[in-house]
Amino acid sequence: MDWFLYVSVGECWDPSDAQPAMYGEVQSPQYPKPYPPNLQEQWDLSVPEGYQIRLTFTHMDIEPSAGCYYDSLTILHDGKVLEKFCGFENSADGHHPGNHPILSPGNRLTLIFQSDSNNPERHQNVGFSAHYQAIDIDECSAPTPADGSGPLCDQICLNTLGSYLCSCHHGYELRSDERSCVLSCTGGIFDEPRGHLLSPGYPNSPPHGVSCQYIIAVERGFTISLNFSDTFQIESVDTEQGRTCPHHWLQVTVPGRKPTKLCGAESPGLMVVNSNTVQLDYKTDDEGPEQRLEPGVQHPHCPLPGSVARGRVTPLMTEYLYRDHIFVRCDDGYKLMMDGQEIESFNTMCQSNGQWHLPLPECHIIDCGEPKPLLNGGVTFLSGSQNQYLSVIQYHCNEPFYSLAGDINGKIFTYSLTCDKERRWTSNTVFPICIPVCGKPTTRISAYQRIIGGSDAPDNTIPWQVMMNIEGGRGGGIVIADRWIMTAAHVVSNQGVTASSDTVRVYTGLTDIKRDMSSPVYAASVHVHPQYNNPNYVDYNNDIALIKLRDPITFDSSVMPVCLPAEGATYQTGNMGLVSGFGITKTNDSRMVLTNKLKYVYVPLVDQETCTNSIKVAKTKLTNIPSLTNNMFCAGIPEGGKDSCQGDAGGPFVLSDSGRYWAAGIVSWGVECGQQGTYGVYTKVTNYLNWIHKTMQEN
Ligand code: ARG
């Protein structure tokens, strides 16, 4: 028969005296904005008795100084300084906690944050943010106090949340001091078909003045036999009348018969009592020498339980007797495993057959599972493996197509995570984001070579170029974000009607239509500039449109975005721009040939006056020539021969700034193609930055 006794201690709380919190947060004033000067702020943290405080910093950025002389966060316990922090991660000066939590020796912790009045540099430090939680103290594994007050518990110590409980071996009772154990022998009815009875304190002598009563009562129809072990000894006195038991005895009483008193050094051996009940009274008085009583069959001892790797067996004793319990707890970062299954807790009992009722469990290392995946990035192990306890991983983006989004306040974060004992990935940084790298193709066009007068673009050199098919017509487009294509309004709009998004096919990563035409990406919506109004193809003002894609593009060498112009980007006459497209390559003979291969050509920016003049001249010879506005610019060479042409519209005209290409223009129109004295006209993208950002944000 197994049994457990649950003891619950109830206490009454004064409602005004509310329990301290189990966890909480602390932040410097105005966090995450920079903290003000001349601060002196104090926090007194407390958790309930029996707990420690674990304080973990999620971020710290305090003006660094040697010895944290100027600004600092001081951590005190009981008036004693535990730590004084300042600086930020990897700062040369200062003292930063990194990602090590701080454990208070008791249940209280004081934080004092101070900043000085003058600050040489612009004050940009944001202070700190931390959270704390109550951590249970395992009082049972604390060493015996040195003050001689003895161990916490006489016999068995059980750790509980926030406290501990003492308990006693079978045959003992916990005294009112709740820590020491006394013998107890008046106890209950023995009704099991088989059992053992031991004299109190066995194998030691019983104390004086013990009076124990044991009642054995088994089911009707069974009879009891008592089998005394050979080691039987109860003090006796031999008189003339024979042996008497004046001070100590064991009396056997069978209902309806005269009781028998037993003592002496000879075992009564087997006693068949022919009854289903029997009462045993064991008595020692205050006189007479202490004697040894050893009735009963061999006392069941269980073997020493041994040890559990990465775990603790409690209580640790020199011997374990019948009905003793042992508990196993695993070290931090390890879990209890039995028969391949994780178990919540473990205890086993010493049975009457001298065997433990369960074998010891094992402690296996815990793991935190797969960390949250990072879109367009991944993780690498800085230490550890298989997401196990204390593994440290780091996030990275898929270079060179993606890079980590700008670090907060210009501080470099490591974006590393540690697997903690609660099986959570913890970090002192925010979750990273991978943003696409713009304007940096993996392959560069090596030489200036000579659409009209252009050359075949090698693979991966103009990855932002897309080819578009709208209701059968060909046009160009420019990748500017993972879901956005920029193009010319006249490519997606005809007689004031915008093409419906399901007629738009976008082909990315193409350099050779015959070789690598694959399935297109589809448009979700088409956004023509609201001021574009070109019913008869004589007004190309505001020739710009944006196409939102149904699904985002994952960038690689063949598809990458180009950068948008920086605020205030300049167009310097004479600078060479790169134009590309799948448009017409020859116009001199009567055949107009649309190219199967992506072509590019470098053409210089032409000043506005030269271009206006060239258009004036054209207007004298031809009708229906559109006008040049300030939302357009021209590019080309006076002698002609290099230009964009029909089919290229909507495609990119890019300029390069320190190795990075940005979208300066969109192929829009021209008076014929590549003729002497004419230029290609492009939509001036800088004039539309606000509209572009607004449209992308709102859709
Ligand atoms: N409007 C033409 C098209 O739809 C683009 C013309 C560019 N012409 C030039 N000479 N650059 O494809």
Give a description of the structure.
By secondary structure, this protein is mostly beta strands. The chain has six domains: 4-11 and 185-283, Spermadhesin, CUB domain (Jelly Rolls), CATH 2.60.120.290; 23-140, Jelly Rolls, CATH 2.60.120; 150-181, Laminin, CATH 2.10.25.10; 301-365, Complement Module, domain 1 (Ribbon); 377-436, Complement Module, domain 1 (Ribbon); 465-697, Trypsin-like serine proteases (Thrombin, subunit H, Beta Barrel), CATH 2.40.10. Helix content is 5%, strand content 36%. The longest helix has 14 residues, at 608-621. Bound molecules: arginine. The site of arginine (ARG) has 13 residues, from β50. Disulfide bonds join 68-86, 140-157, 153-166, 168-181, 185-212, 245-263, 330-363, 368-419, 397-434, 438-563, 611-634, 645-673. One of its GO terms (biological process) is innate immune response. It is found in: Cell surface; Secreted. InterPro entries: CUB_dom, EGF, EGF-like_Ca-bd_dom, EGF_Ca-bd_CS, NOTCH1_EGF-like, Pept_S1A_C1r/C1S/mannan-bd, Peptidase_S1_PA, Peptidase_S1_PA_chymotrypsin.
Number of strands: 51
What does the overall shape look like?
elongated
Q: How large is the share of residues in beta strands?
A: 35-45%
Unreliable parts: 1-16, 288-298
Number of helices: 4
CATH superfamily of the largest domain: Trypsin-like serine proteases
CATH domain fold name of the largest domain: Thrombin, subunit H
Catalytic activity: Selective cleavage of Lys(or Arg)-|-Ile bond in complement subcomponent C1s to form the active form of C1s (EC 3.4.21.42)
Pfam family, one: EGF_CA
InterPro entries: CUB_dom, EGF, EGF-like_Ca-bd_dom, EGF_Ca-bd_CS, NOTCH1_EGF-like, Pept_S1A_C1r/C1S/mannan-bd, Peptidase_S1_PA, Peptidase_S1_PA_chymotrypsin
GO molecular function: calcium ion binding; serine-type endopeptidase activity
